[in-house]
Design goal:
Length: 310
């Protein structure tokens, strides 16, 4: 059995909740994060310090970040868009900030209303400000495995953007399959290229299950040496360019598969399933995850009754 240690990073409370039309009460957010903190994650993306007008679902970022019960060994991270957001996050004692831009020009203009160069300049100013503090810096590169407007994104283009951020002092990068366009052999090629060129960089892969390939893509990334993955409780998270599609890879489905394959995730699957069972009541609809519905592989059932008439 392969007992390699993997690192699972929960993103539902930021990436998932930001797409929900129903506001999840602050107390409920805090209680859920506290529950997740008992489940053995490597990292939890708690919230986003963006404008409340832009993302009203996360308008309680300060209250949540200040009041969660932190567990030693877990990195508590938050997304920030600019220097002001970084200042807010630092005042709440985050362990890490997460910055975002797209590798493809079209998606960056559509999603962030800026050119890539404008985004890079803005994020550089954030990095320069944060480097004066002990807070770590991760950059998430959207559309690293395909753009819904441009199609395939060349590997070298991804590597060039990673290099530019490495050169200004980030500690980690997340390669995002933003709209679920990735496929296994492509994932292997990109993962091998990034690990070869940046052996000291903390590399995370972020898959969406838009076309049902997130678990297959994870296995391919594992084969290429990746050991860190984002996942979302219940599979929460949207995909704006594929209406009606599922979003992020589901945490419990991912952990279930990885544990069956002999990997050590450090994640308490029972605890995660209990947390996932709370989601429909919080967001007001069913969630895409399969394990909560079907049960684990060896959750056995009693024999059906054989009683019958003569």
């Amino acid at each position: 059995m392969n007992r390699k240690r993997l690192y699972i990073q929960e993103v539902a409370t930021r990436d998932g909740f930001q797409n929900e039309s129903r506001f999840v009460d602050t107390e409920a957010k805090i209680a859920l994060i506290d529950c997740l903190s008992e489940c053995g994650y490597a990292k939890i993306e708690v919230t986003s310090f963006t404008s409340p007008k832009a993302i009203p679902a996360l308008r309680d970022a300060e209250a949540v970040m200040h009041r969660i019960k932190r567990r030693e060994g877990i990195i508590y991270t938050a997304l920030v868009p600019n220097v002001r957001g970084a200042e807010r996050a630092i005042s709440c004692h985050v362990d890490e900030i997460n910055l975002v831009m797209s590798v493809s020009e079209s998606h960056n203009r559509s999603n962030l209303r800026m050119t890539r160069e404008q985004s890079f300049a803005q994020l550089r100013s954030v990095i320069e400000a944060v480097q004066k503090t002990p807070v770590s810096i991760n950059v998430s590169l959207s559309t690293a495995m395909g753009c819904p407007m441009e199609g395939d994104v060349p590997v070298e283009q991804v590597l060039e953007w990673v290099q530019r951020f490495v050169d200004i002092g980030i500690h980690g990068v997340t390669l995002c399959d933003t709209t679920g366009m990735a496929f296994p052999s492509q994932v292997a090629t990109l993962s091998e290229a990034v690990r070869s060129r940046f052996p000291a960089l903390e590399v995370t892969l972020h898959f969406h299950n838009t076309r049902g390939m997130a678990l297959a893509n994870t296995l391919s990334a594992l084969g290429a040496g990746i050991d860190r993955f984002d996942a979302s409780l219940g599979g929460l998270g949207g995909c704006p360019y594929a209406p009606g599609a599922t979003g992020n890879v589901c945490t419990e489905d991912l952990v279930h598969m990885l544990e069956l394959e002999g990997f050590r995730t450090g994640v308490d699957l029972d605890g995660v399933l209990a947390a996932s069972a709370l989601l429909p009541g919080l967001v007001g609809h069913e969630v895409p995850g399969q394990l909560l519905k079907a049960g684990r592989r060896l959750d056995l059932h009693p024999m059906p009754s054989t009683e019958g008439g003569a």
